[in-house]
Amino acid sequence: MIQDIETIDEFLAHRTADVEEAVRTAAAMEIMPRFRQLAAHEIDEKTGPHDLVTDADRKAEEYLTEALVKLLPGSVVVGEEAVHANPATYEAIKGEAPVWIVDPVDGTRQFVHGDPGFCTLVALAHRGVLLASWTYAPARDQLAVAVRGKGALLDGEPLRAGSPAPGRDLEVATSHPDYTTDDQKHALLGLWTEGVGPRACGSAGLEYLAVARGELDATAFSWEAAWDHAAGILLVEEAGGAHLTLSGEPFRITGGNTLPFTAARDAATARRVLGLLSGGA
Fold it and tell me: Which pTM does this prediction carry?
């Protein structure tokens, strides 16, 4: 088993391209052949009509689980579909082993409807600290990679979140109404104010990428499932952005966050959004 952070650093120094290859291969083998080709029997509901899973989700997660553990012996995988089948596996995020956090198809609803706005998310963490992430949008052939302390890249080019232009309304992607409770909707109401342009989010991973690219000013999310947020949180952070929960603390992948939370292009924007969320809570 991996025993210390130096060993993982060595892995990241030499094997990130291998992780990229695994992510690309999972998409090429299990996701893209099913894109706009899904049959009815390949789509199932999990908790309801807005919470879908497909054969592409399951097969891609199976492939990544095997490939990632092989790349980093002693590591474990916390995948969305495996946790749905056995919620206890989520606890590995808090364990001592390096953990791969996997969302095989982030934006399954878009995927099911033939919309290219979906992606595969992989993050590597150890003892609650995010170390690296991969965000791959296969229908667009875009790959973003972040390594803690090393910055973020999109298709090999540096990502810089920058800051919003003064005087322009903030564009904020928020939890989709289909996925929020009444209490969560109330907490997010603070964003409906002058100077802010809130909209429902699509794929969380792609919204984080948009923040890291400086195309979206902030997110405001009311759930904390690590597979939706881990890759994007590190991507935004390494592109110069910031993230804060309602308590004023950074988002923790191990859970127990005070929600909602925001990830933004810079610290000032994160604080501004947080203030608005506090007003709605």
Answer: 0.93
